[in-house]
Amino acid sequence: MKEHLAECDLKRCFLCKHALPDWLPAIGAHKKSFDIKKGQQLFKEGDPVTGIYFVYSGSLKVHKRWDKEKELITRFAKEGDILGHMGLGDEAFYPVSATALEPSVVCFIGMDFFESTLRVNTELTYRLMRFFASELQKSEKRMRNLAHMSVKARIAQSFITLKNQFGLDEDGYIRIELTRQDIASFAGASYETLFKVINELTASGIIGITGKKIVLLNEAQLLRLVEEDNL
């Protein structure tokens, strides 16, 4: 990774938003920023934990080996989000990988300083606890969906989740461009099944696809596919 030389505004990320104002100069003195190219890994599953990352700009996917040839995307991270927090456990290795989906800038805080920051900043520690609880709930729901929802419903849910997380651009498309393989990995589906379901959804006028751009033409019908599967 190449070090990013432009100055951080100390306002955008999870850490800076919830730390004490008087602590921000210390964060500025200890953090490092890096440019990451599209497709470049920030860290990979099994790497030793050295610290915590925060997304300053761009977006990344967090993924885990599913078997020898497949991966499961567990979440996406965009500006302001935290990465590497799953390495805070007793085992000092990252249990997931993180890869840039577009040219991105991330800020890095070493583990020793981050732990000192948590001891001093009670609001940050509280917010981090709430974040972990939310992530655990999402993870449990995701595992339930993988076990009990049909593939078509999981793909529909994936489109809704992406729209809710990234919002829409001025033309109404979801504000992130993903490969078909990434969408399949996020939905827990094979590429072939995803291709078939996308064709069905586009033929029914439920979604529209232009290159890597996705528009939800009938979100209510997508929601019905998910809800009917949960009955």
Number of strands: 11
User: Beta-strand percentage?
Assistant: 15-25%
- Poorly predicted segments: none
Largest pleated sheet: 5 strands, antiparallel
* Number of helical regions: 8
Distance between the first and last residues' Cα: 47 Å
Please tell me what the overall shape is: globular
What's the overall average pLDDT, rounded? 89
SSE succession:
EHHEEEEEEEEHHHHHEEH
Output the structural class: alpha+beta
Helicity level: 40-55%
Largest sheet strand order: 1-2-9-4-7
Mind telling me the C-alpha Rg?
Answer: 19 Å
Using brief descriptors, characterize the structure shown:
5-stranded antiparallel beta sheet; 11 strands; about 230 residues; 4-stranded antiparallel beta sheet; 8 helices
Structure in words:
The chain is an alpha+beta fold and 231 residues long. The protein is built from eight helices and eleven strands. The protein has helices at residues 14-18, 24-30, 111-120, 122-148, 151-166, 180-187, 191-203, 219-230; strands at 2-3, 32-36, 41-43, 51-57, 59-65, 71-78, 82-83, 97-100, 104-110, 207-210, 213-216. Strands 1-2-9-4-7 form a five-stranded antiparallel β-sheet. Helix 6 packs across helix 7 (191-203). The radius of gyration is 19 Å and the shape is globular.
